[in-house]
Amino acid sequence: MIGDALVKAGDTQTAAVLYNNATLLDSYDSWPYADLLEDRIANIDVNVERFRAAVEPGTPLDPTETTVSNTSSVCLVCHGGPGYQAYAMPPWVGASADQHVVPEF
Fold first, then answer.
1. CA gap 27, 94 in Å, rounded
2. What is 9-76 written as a DSSP string?
3. CA 63, CA 47: separation in Å to the nearest integer?
4. Which residues, at least 6 apart from 100, have a Cβ–Cβ distance to it below 8 Å?
5. DSSP H or E stretch at residue 61
6. pTM
7. Which residues, 6 or more positions from 5, have their beta carbon under 8 angstroms from its beta carbon?
8. Which residues contact 53 (CB under 8 A, 6 or more apart)?
9. Left (φ > 0), alpha (ψ -120 to 50) or beta: where does 82 sit?
10. pLDDT tens readout for residues 48-99
11. Residue 100 DSSP SS3
């Protein structure tokens, strides 16, 4: 999440350090969000503009094209360990597990 905020701010160099540090964890290979992180590393420069784009409430989102704070996985990315379902939507959102929607507050 901090890496995404740095990318959005244009500090891709520091974000890359944080993203790459996560790959050094012993549990990285079994972490359900490893593919998402690897996509962020590969697309770090493109993601500056993607992450800055305005998002309307109720809009379906691709988790590779928005900050993790705009997804239902926001807490699980850091606090969910191996065995958690990647990208699962909480039941109160009313969307399927493969669909992300910006919540309305």
1. 31
2. TT-HHHHHHHHHHHTTSTTGGG-TTHHHHHHHHHTHHHHHHHHHS---TT-EE-TTSS-GGGSTTTTH
3. 11
4. 60, 61, 62, 63, 66, 70, 71, 72, 87, 89
5. strand 60-61
6. 0.69
7. 67, 69
8. 66
9. beta
10. 999 898 888 777 778 888 887 777 666 666 666 555 444 444 444 444 444 4
11. strand
Residue with tokens 């959102």: 93
**Which residue's entry shows tokens 């691709």?**
62
User: In terms of C-beta density within 10 A (0-12 exposed, 13-18 middle, 19 or more buried), how is residue 16 classed?
Assistant: middle
**What tokens were used for 93?**
């959102």
Tokens of 63: 């988790």
